[in-house]
Specification:
mainly alpha
Amino acid sequence: MPFGSLWLPVLVSAVVVFIGSSIIHMVLKYHKADIKGLPGEDSIREALGKADPPPGIYMTPYCSDMKQMQDPAMKEKYVKGPVALLTFYPKGGINMGKLLGLWFAFNILVSFVAAYVARMTLMPGTDGMLVMRVTGTVAFAAYGLSHVSDSIWKGQPWANTMRALIDTVIYSVLTGLAFCLLWPAA
């Protein structure tokens, strides 16, 4: 089956996921609980501003190897706290146009990978439910599994991950439906 026959479901699924995610975040707003403000934010911002770290991800307390983690002074820093993973963005306003463009490009990438797997495992005229299961499963893995890793390794609250996995199920169903409806006939 030529891959060109799958560009329509790739693009349609990317668009419907983009629209679905927009509805989730702008209308349903159940992700408002994902991020909280810091108590004493102004004084914390002032202290961090003096350090002026460049964009990146920082850990406090920071240690560069496992041997250093065994140092009693380092252990005490962890016990005393705070323990934090901080992400610093470039200064200036948030460019939502750029972020939404990158999100849409990611949607296309996920749909492209789902199309690739489906093309390699399914034939034209395959039962729509099988097409939906294969493409939806690939989409689920792509959209959702990194959130589990973030809860394990980066301290993302599990409640945030559960909300993200609800989104992932929706995105997977939308992706699978697009491919089911637009899968090439035999």
